[in-house]
Each structure stands twice: as C-alpha cells, then as structure tokens.
Amino acid sequence: MINVTSQYKPSLSGAFMACGVLYALCSPSTRQEEIFYAFDTTTGQKCHLSILLDKMLETLQGINYCPSDHKLYVYNDGYLINYDFSFLTLKCRLPRPPGKRPSGAQAPPKADKPNKPSRPGDPRAKHQ
Question: Strand pairing partners for 65?
Fold first, then answer.
C-alpha cells in the first residue's frame, strides 16, 4: 500500500525526510521558516506542527536532514545554516487499534490472582 499526503507542493517552501517522516515547511515571513506539517510514510498519519527556524535571507534553496550528525542543513541565498535536531515521538499520533486475531484463535488465559495470606480463623482459608 502506498501512503499519500494531501499537501499541495507549490504552497511549500521546502520539505525533508527524517526517520521515515516527511516534514513540510512554509515561510510565514522573510526571515523565518516554519516546519508546519509531518507525514509518517509508514502509517499514513499526519500531524500539524509549528517549529520556527530563523534564516539569514528570504529565499530557501534547499533543506536536508543528516541522520549521522542529527543536523538539519538549510541552504539560504548562499548561506549554509545548520540546526541541531532531536526527534521525539509525535504526540498527535492516533492510538493503534487492537490487533485482530485469526478466526478460531482464543484470547490468552488471564493470570491467576495470587492467594492472599490467610489468618487463623479466616473463613476464606483453604484447609489441606
């Protein structure tokens, strides 16, 4: 199955891939870029973000993430700007539905509750 995003490419100022996730950027001003959208290519889930990046000049020529040094490299009107990045789990991910069992499969047995120690004279005490 191929997962497809609904983002319209001409409206983006750039995009990059990191850890199987497509991140999209737009320019809210001439001196900032915003990472505003994430699309997980494995699950097809999308998330709206707001991560602002300062830039030197108006035009963004390219953006790439390098997983070996955890940096985002931005080419901006002759300047190379790099940002240190740490990725966390997206909080807007939807919970996954419980897995389906094949027909005829039974649920695993529940663990027995441990017996509580009994006191002398307790009617619940087992006699051996």
Answer: 72
Report residue 100 CA to chain centroid gap. Answer: 24
Domain of residue 68, residue span? 13-84
Residue 59 lies in a domain: yes
Q: What is the number of domains present in the chain?
A: 1
**Given the structure tokens 């087992």, which residue do they identify?**
126
Confidence at residue 56, expressed as pLDDT on a 0 to 100 scale: 82
Strands 46-54, 60-66: parallel, antiparallel or unpaired by DSSP?
unpaired
Joined together, the tokens standing for residue 25 give 């950027």
Domain assignment of residue 89, yes or no: no
Confidence of residue 23 (pLDDT cuts 50, 70, 90): very high
Q: What angle do CA 34, 37, 42 make, to 5 degrees?
A: 145
* 62 located within any domain: yes
